[in-house]
Amino acid sequence: MVIDHLIPVSKNGKDCFENYVLTFKDLNIGKSNKIDENQIDGMKYIVELVYAPRAKKIYEKLSRIKLLSKTNRKPKGLILLRRKDLFWADDQEIEILSDSPLVNEKNIYDLLKTIDKFVEMARDDDSDFCFDVWLTSEEGKKLRSIWYHAGGKYFRLVRKTKYYETNSPDKWAYLYFNQEYLDFLAWQEKEHESLDEIWEVENKEELKEKLQEFCVKYPPPEKYLDDMMKLFEA
């Protein structure tokens, strides 16, 4: 199988996902730069609204590998605690795991809430860490043990904790976040902000156009595709 251009580049076809199709090598050579005028419109419709979005989705997932962990395999000792929606609530999910017996399904929600609070503190200072955090040794171990599995990669949320004075009865500490986790949060928020801006568009034609563009960039799973198509046709 090879990638062919639906409309040949020699006939002003663009070199983009919306103009890519898979075909057999022999057929591609035999076709040369010919175009079947009777089928081109129907094929363009299918490629642009079905195949191209999926191809872009795969490409973007591969491109985001740099944002995620270099660890390709599941680290030993990780136990799955829960899942939560990443975006379209279907074919993309975040797995939340831990490698500590101190963390379980009962306390993971509160621990994630704590991490969210500390992340906001770090962002307020435009930093990858926060300070003046009251944290017992056991709580620090719990936070450092939490992992995400998203986009095919595993990464920790908290990189390390550092106490002001090791022997002090007070537990004031620095809490450092994994940069991969911060990059992941930034990407996720950008996704949501993009959709929020679209729903503020009042002109129906402009709204449909922006929804189509959004679905190309962030393709909806199959179970939502019919509903989105109805919006485009309305």
Strand order of the largest sheet: 3-4-6-7
Percentage of β-strand residues: 15-25%
- Return residue spans where pLDDT drops below 50 for at least 5 consecutive residues: 65-69
Please provide the count of β strands. Answer: 9
**Whole-angstrom Rg:** 24 Å
Secondary-structure element string: EEHHEEHEHEEEEHHH
Whole-number mean pLDDT = 75
Which sheet architecture does the biggest sheet show? 4 strands, antiparallel
Number of helices: 7
Q: What spatial form do the alpha-carbon principal axes imply?
A: elongated
What labels would you give this structure?
234 residues, elongated, alpha+beta, four-stranded antiparallel sheet, three-stranded antiparallel sheet, 3 domains
Would you write up a description of this structure?
With 234 residues, this protein is of the alpha+beta class. It folds into three domains: 2-66, no CATH class; 75-180, no CATH class; 187-233, no CATH class. Helices cover 44% and strands 21% of the residues. The chain is built from seven helices and nine strands. The strands form three sheets. Strands 3-4-6-7 form a four-stranded antiparallel β-sheet. A three-stranded antiparallel β-sheet has the order 5-9-8. Strand 3 and strand 4 (93-98) form a beta hairpin. Helix 2 (40-63) packs across helix 6 (204-217) and helix 5 packs antiparallel against helix 6 (204-217). It is elongated and about 80 Å long. Mean pLDDT is 75; it is low at 65-69.
